[in-house]
Specification:
Distance between the termini: 35 Å
CATH topology: Ribosomal Protein L13p, Chain: A
Oligomer: single chain
Order of helices and strands: EHEHEEHHHEE
Strand content: 15-25%
Number of domains: 1
CATH architecture: Alpha-Beta Complex
Number of helices: 5
Amino acid sequence: MKSYLAKNGEIEQRVLLFDASEAPVGKIAVKIANALRGKDLPTFTPHVDTGAIVIVINAEKAVFTGKKNTDKIYQDFSGYRGGQKEYTAKEIREKHPKRLIKDAVWGMLPHGRLGRAQFRKLKVYAGCEHPHAAQNPVKVTM
């Protein structure tokens, strides 16, 4: 029996909608990363972008378990001497709530040309409104 390898021309693009409210950041990030890569489909091919376009709403309502909200550290580095800054997850949630989901998903994707192309298909919104209603996204339940 031959193995199936997907080709770029025969991939049907799906649009999925995830609601991150009251969901643990790590658990929803795994589902999102698998959908972006296409690992949730039987036609998954590692070297071809077979994933879906993913829309995430209510990113500001995603939760951390345990004491990660105060103990988890995010780092920024400007590239200059003395330009490294550290922020807790609580501080990031106040300023940039979308970054919590994006950083978690980016860590679960391959860090090459294909991973960057898959990451560009991720759209994260802090509130419940999104401008992608015309694409008829399919709501994914957790």
